[in-house]
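Q: Two folds, back to back.
A: First:
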Amino acid sequence: MLAALAALALSPSPAPAQVSVQIQVNIPANPQLLVVQPGIQVVENWDEEVFFTGGYYWVRRDAYWYRAPSPRATWVYVEPHHVPPGLTRLPPGHYKHYRKEQAKAEQKAWKEHQKADKKAHKDSQKAQHGESKGDGKGHGHD
């Protein structure tokens, strides 16, 4: 009986099925990249959105993501839970034919938005701080 169990334990088990899907993405060997978010870049003025982040090039086709370690390498399908969250939050199609002028305008708008948020937060804290101190009125002085 022990010999049978040992033989069973040592026998190879069937491997789980794997699906391998590859695509072609014909971008230049050294594409010009533009920053779209901290840590995420896109290939400038390209027919489809090709991003670079985490040491990989990424492309979304329909609802599927593919990646490659370099522009001319084999592009392979990536399970959704392995796609960086920053990529999945990008609006599909927004960065197609993305140009340097757009990147500069968006970065300027983003900085202005952050500046306005910071000022609003500061004003809010100042108002709250002023309320907690009181305004010095109503203490028996006429």
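A: Second:
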Amino acid sequence: MENERYSFILTVDQKYWNRLRQRACLNSPINVFVRKNTVGPKKAQLLLFYVTKKKQVLGSGDFVERATGNFDDLWQKFGSESCFESFEEYTDFADGRESMTFIRFRNFKEITDPKSKEETAEVLGSLRGFGAGKYLDKETAMKLA
């Protein structure tokens, strides 16, 4: 079971991806990926970041924890680890939702030689059906990382 849930692939839009990359330049020890719902890994070792516009896995990080709860409480605890520049920007992103998920990770890195979108589709079986994320076994994850 642990091997089957080794990694979790997250879909990231181009704007958020660019912010993750900028934040990585700051050498932040912990980063947060913010979701508007409670979908996310409960246990995993590795996170993979699938950039939707490129249709490629372009980054990875070591999973720390998933925190779900009130959007304001989560911001107070972990907002400084996020890519949002202000509480107002985060509030706009939340779009009235009271419950959010913060997926915390460390050791963010860009993949230096990412698979092409065709190779990514071959490894995953499809580039559809994991918009909310998806667990990957270790073998599959290592092909993309």
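Q: And?
A: The chain has one domain: 7-144.
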